[in-house]
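Protocol step 4 of 6: structure prediction from sequence.
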Amino acid sequence: MNIQLYQFEVVLGDVGKNEAKIEQFFKNDLRSDTDIVVLPEMWNNGYDLEHLNEKADHNLGNTTKFISNLARTFNVNVVAGSVSNKKDEGVYNTLIVFNNQGELIYDYDKIHLVPMLDEPKYLAPGKLLPETFELCQNKMSGIICYDLRFPEPIRRLAIEGSKVIFVVAEWPESRLYHWRHLNIARAIENESYIVACNSCGNDGNTEYAGHSMVIAPNGDVLSEADNQETTFNVEIDLDKVDEMRNQIPVFKNRRTDLYS
């Protein structure tokens, strides 16, 4: 399976410029053998939190039209990062996944909001845990940025059969060490591929780390970007997940009789 990540600098509060960047990527850089494209977190408006009530998408309307067209046109599945998404109850940070027919097959509202960035002041927390979805005839799943620090729901995804866990993020440069080591830890402890797509650059408030990466179920970093705009492809073998889970059967050895 071939996965292509697009790490780019999200323009603060300007969905038109961000859509143009993504569209140019699909036209100029998408490899024909790519099965899944991955985009970073909050790519429509970035962390323009104070203005999201006016600028956020409404019930994924514009985002669905935009990404669905790209998925159909280029015949590729898209883990389309996340976008600011306004519903009746407030503005959410919503992860979205489209198949190569342009169908929205999964969405998830970020449940862990970042107090250091005042997210709880401007965003509503999701009410449901992330779930698995199916792409390329395999179970996969996705989380958003700060979710990476909470192993409990991620372990649940692995137990339910997820072989690939996508992490979409706008993770800051100041905590790059945490980004790298948490992604590696989540791969090792869940014996899953971690496909982590981050943004980069500076939006005037925060310097973002980049360093998008793909990690094998044994913790090996298969590919990692630097802190500049880039795209890269990684070939993964999902049989390696089963092999790793048979070699070190942590799921069979869990002591659920003792866990609370």
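Step 5 (inspection) to follow. The CA atoms of residues 50 and 200 lie 21 Å apart.
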